[in-house]
## 1
Amino acid sequence: MAKRWTKKEDQYIIDNYQSKTISVIAYKLNRTRNAVTVRAYHLKVRKSKRRDIQATSKNDYRRQLSKLRIQERIERRVCSKCSNKAVSKMYCQKCLDKMKKYNKQYYKRRRNSQQSGE
């Protein structure tokens, strides 16, 4: 039979869920990670930074959320296109090479169309 949650345990989760990992909380409370996660969900406690966004409109919220996602990817150094390890701020070497190749072809076609149009 499952152990019941005490008010003291609930308060511990509310106080520490943002700052500590789920594993640490589970160890301290002598519970499983899944049990702590489910209990935090029932207590409406979240880890996400996205809840902290203060937006006046839906578009403003989307813009701020997009910036936050980009910042998180830069911090983790993950490519925005393929999720490989990033070399530059946003992209891995493979994706950078593809973009360079595409840009060369694009500008070459554009130059040719401008010359033929004159």
## 2
Amino acid sequence: MERRNRGLRRRRIYRAICLLGRPVPGTVRPLPRKDGELDYAALAGELKRLKQSYPDKTDVQVLSADAIRFESLIKTMDAAMASGFPDISLLDAASGAP
């Protein structure tokens, strides 16, 4: 989905919590925004709550598409690492493969 804002095109970035490769119902929604930017602190907060539910899990998968900026990927991976998920796999959303 796309929105126009001040003449610039912005794409929504979605996040989903998946277990065994399937999204958990109700967890697929856009990343929140704060002051027009993606709210990585809110993402980290959600990941920390998830970590409390699954304390033994250390891995997370980040799906990327061509339209996602590199900076957004790095900040997403930083939020995951800060939340206790140091084992990060970067997947191509088009193929779903690393």
